[in-house]
Amino acid sequence: MDFNQIIDRRNTDCLKFDAAVRRGYPADILPLWVADMDFPTAPPVIEAVQKRTAHGIFGYSEADPERLYRVLEQWFRERHHWQIRKDWLLQTPGVVFALAMAVKAFTEPGDAVLIQQPVYYPFSEVILDNGRRRVSSDLILKDGRYEIDFADFEQKIIENDVKLFLLCSPHNPAGRVWTREELETVAGICRKHNVIVVADEIHEDFVWMERPHIPYASLGEEAAENAVICTSPSKTFNLAGLQVSNIFIPDYALRRKFKHEINAAGYSQLNTLGLVACEAAYQQGIPWLEEVKQYLRENIEFTRTFLQQHIPQIKLIEPEGTYLLWLDCRGLGLGNSGLEELIVKKAGLWLDSGAIFGAAGKGFQRINAACPRSVLQEALERMQKAVSG
Fold first, then answer.
1. Fewer beta carbons within 10 angstroms: which end of the chain, N or C?
2. 59-284: which CATH architecture?
């Protein structure tokens, strides 16, 4: 695969490029914000979708449960050393939809839901927009690496009678891949206080250290019975627009409540082409995935070196996972509005402002490195010029 090739995504209703003016940005802004890749997906996926499209009928579709289970079982067993069961599986059009369904299924209006800011901003949206209380046990940045303050984590649960915890693993945007010890500590606290854990593991296939991603439900039976595990091929294979996610809920009672909320929302069959793409990706997409992961590693290294050599005021928070890079811009000495002025108006870049990830994200910017290197280089050079000016 030639990941250096620039593919024009404009005029394809692409959110990253075509929504700029509608959202108040200049038409010529360089976007590296939304979390999809600027690369075509794996060739076997394209071939499978083209074959299905040629059939010409796009009626209600539902994956064969036995066939889908075999595909997913092999993937999670071989890639993540986690043994799933067929009856655990439910499918939704996306992980954010699943998070919203979990909030509605397992809490009541006014209940407290815990998150760890700075964190993916839809976490807050699905809590607040459903009339629940958002409580954050903010991650602590220590020596360039985010950590969990476990004493604060437990205290926030006790003080607010927290019912539900939304775990981001690997963490977006902090880039942390939680260790088994960290996850076991979280699990112990949540079991102690009867807090249900919903784990967003959508970035599970992008891990850069030797330490692997640990599926939360693989910690043991007690953790699994108190958890909802949200996965999807959308980040791994750049399929977000096809809307398919695989949600695993080992406990029958939790699964039943979750399914009830899906039914109440009026959602049933998934996107036909999403089902086709999901199976093809997990069955035949590994060679492509390994290539794209190597390219992303090189993009991360390029970013790290460029910042060190040309913009030392901006520090890369070393990513253990994900292709979304978290930049510490506090060394520029700008307030949040000043930083936005620099990035948007002077550099002509559309990144994600750290402030939208919570108060703990102020002074940071998130940049998507899943693009051709020449695009990434242009973005960094624009940033350098703006800082120098």
1. C
2. 3-Layer(aba) Sandwich (3.40)
What are the backbone dihedrals phi and psi of residue 162, each rounded to the nearest 5 degrees, phi first? Answer: -65, 135
What is the token pair recorded at 327? Answer: 């930049």
Radius of gyration of the chain (CA): 21
Q: Is 289 left (phi over 0), alpha (psi -120 to 50) or beta?
A: alpha
Six-digit token pair at 287?
């060679």
For domain 15-42+287-388, is the CATH number 3.30.70.260? no
Sign, CA dihedral 88-94-98-101, equals: negative
The residues that bridge with 367 in the sheet, in sequence order, are 325
For the chain, the domains span 15-42+287-388, 59-284
Residue 389 clears pLDDT 90, i.e. is over it? no
As to burial, measured by CB atoms within 10 angstroms (0-12 exposed, 13-18 middle, 19+ buried), residue 380 is buried
DSSP result, 360-388:
GGTTEEEEE--S-HHHHHHHHHHHHHHHH
- Place 8 in a pLDDT band, splitting at 50, 70 and 90: very high
Cα–Cα distance, 76 to 73 (Å, whole number): 6
Tell me what the pLDDT averaged over the chain comes to. Answer: 97
**Beta-carbon neighbour count of residue 90 at 10 Å?**
17
Model pTM? 0.97
Q: How far is CA 64 from CA 260, 275, 279, in A?
A: 21, 10, 11
Q: Read out DSSP for 36-58?
A: --SS---HHHHHHHHHHHHH---
pLDDT in tens, 58-88: 999 999 999 999 999 999 999 999 999 999 9
Q: What is the mean pLDDT of residues 161-190?
A: 98
CA dist list (Å): 11 to 14, 15, 238: 7, 10, 18
Give the pLDDT of residue 211: 86
Q: How high is the pLDDT of residue 210?
A: 86
Per-residue HEC secondary structure of 190-213 comes to HHHCCCEEEEECCCCCCECCCCCC
Report the alpha-carbon distance of residue 314 to residue 330 in Å, rounded. Answer: 7
Give the DSSP H/E element, type plus range, for residue 112: strand 112-115
Question: Which residue shows structure tokens 């996972």?
Answer: 321
Give the residue-averaged pLDDT of 345-350: 98
